[in-house]
Design brief:
This protein has 379 residues and is of the alpha/beta class. The chain is built from 16 helices and 10 strands. Helix 1 packs across helix 8, helix 4 runs parallel beside helix 8 and helix 15 runs parallel beside helix 16. It is globular and about 60 Å long.
């Protein structure tokens, strides 16, 4: 068994080659398992999510058991300790059902949009945080700040342990999103944003531009100067809000900010990882604007073989169906893995098609079987 430093060097080269569309001796493997690894470790969701020491054990055991080259999630997705400390519940955990539900209590209205231009801080404090818990005390706020720093410390620590003990790379240090995703996920939701694109398009475009100028642009510009040699990529971003858009809406409200944000990173030679929930195939023409060899695209529901034909200039990750991993035999899973690694060609990273969330998303013996096979399959 190679030591952690040697494994890191080997894996880093595999990922760098895959992103650059260069030939590799084998296909690198990245874990797209999220809450599934908590259940696989024999914990309840609450036990891990409310205890960073338990979550650290979950993440490290996941790596030790399945020997991934890199991980998309390192245990930091649901920071319930922070939101609960501040007096509101963003995610409802049901340990009996092994599920996490997002509360439908998005606080911002379209009428609030003009306030952002006048005072961005007042917008977030008054229209978002203030409505999540109107009775928040100073003590609750300070406790939330304390939990935030504990969360950051956990993230840094678990990624460092993955690297130092196992030579495994985190996919990225921190996620960034375009303004449309921020409004979609945190402020307006599916219904609100769908209505805004039709009833308040000018006001919506104004706040999207304002958020980009005041928040996204400075953050990404600063991030582009960093050293991310211990990660697979320098930044993560997601496609999710696109799932409620037609082509004209995507071209107007989404793509210009995405292109500007990624160009800042690309101009500094920084690579990015993008997870696309739902389908991205219908927007593949836009992806022609992405420079060759600069991005990993991880699609969730698209036919990965058809997508490969449309974006041959972009590294693609994913493709291993949860429907196989969770329900079919080891032999059937290995056969499908063989099809992926032999047909996808250069610029491919083996991973699951969806975020591994539920117990039924994978059987442990199938995960081990496909990982063992891909690691041993020479191209």
């Amino acid at each position: 068994m190679k030591d952690a430093k040697a494994l890191f060097q080997e894996r880093k080269e595999l990922f760098d080659n895959a992103i650059a569309l260069k030939h590799n001796k084998r296909v690198p493997i990245v874990s797209n398992y999220w809450t599934w690894k908590i259940l696989d470790a024999g914990c309840t969701l609450s036990e891990a999510i409310y205890d960073w020491d338990v979550m650290t054990r979950v993440v490290l055991e996941h790596q030790e058991k399945y020997c991934f080259d890199g991980l998309v999630d390192c245990g930091g997705r649901n920071n319930n300790k922070l939101t609960n400390a501040m007096g509101y519940e963003r995610h409802v955990i049901n340990d009996e059902m092994e599920s996490i539900t997002v509360q439908d209590n998005l606080p911002v209205t379209a009428e609030d949009y003009p306030l952002y231009r006048k005072n961005p801080q007042e917008f977030w404090w008054k229209c978002w945080l203030g409505r999540m818990n109107p009775d928040m005390t100073k003590e609750q706020f300070l406790e939330g700040v304390s939990e935030f720093f504990k969360f950051v410390e956990f993230g840094d620590r678990v990624k460092a342990e993955l690297l130092e003990k196992y030579g495994a790379l985190a996919a990225f240090p921190i996620p960034y999103t375009v303004p449309m995703e921020l409004l979609f996920n945190q402020a307006r939701g599916i219904k609100g944003l769908s209505l805004d694109m039709r009833r308040h398009p000018e006001e919506l475009m104004d706040i999207l531009d304002a958020i980009f100028e005041t928040e996204v642009l400075p953050a990404v510009t600063a991030a582009a100067e960093g050293d991310y040699s211990n990660f697979i990529t320098a930044m993560e971003t997601i496609f999710l809000a696109h799932s409620i858009m037609n082509t004209k809406q995507f071209a107007r409200f989404y793509w210009p900010h995405f292109l500007k944000m990624t160009k800042i990173m690309f101009d500094k030679g920084q690579k990015i990882y993008t997870f696309s929930e739902a389908y991205i195939d219908r927007f593949s023409d836009f992806l022609q604007d992405i420079p060759e060899g600069m991005m990993i695209l991880h699609p969730e529901q698209d036919d990965i073989f058809e997508l490969r034909k449309k974006i041959p200039h972009i590294c693609i990750a994913g493709g291993m169906p949860a429907s196989y991993l969770g329900y079919k035999s080891e032999e059937e899973c290995v056969d499908y893995a063989r099809k992926l690694v032999s047909e996808m060609g250069d610029g491919y990273i083996f991973s699951q098609d969806k975020m591994g969330t539920f117990r039924a998303d994978a059987r442990p013996e199938n995960v081990k079987a496909v990982n063992d096979f891909v690691r041993s399959y020479e191209l």
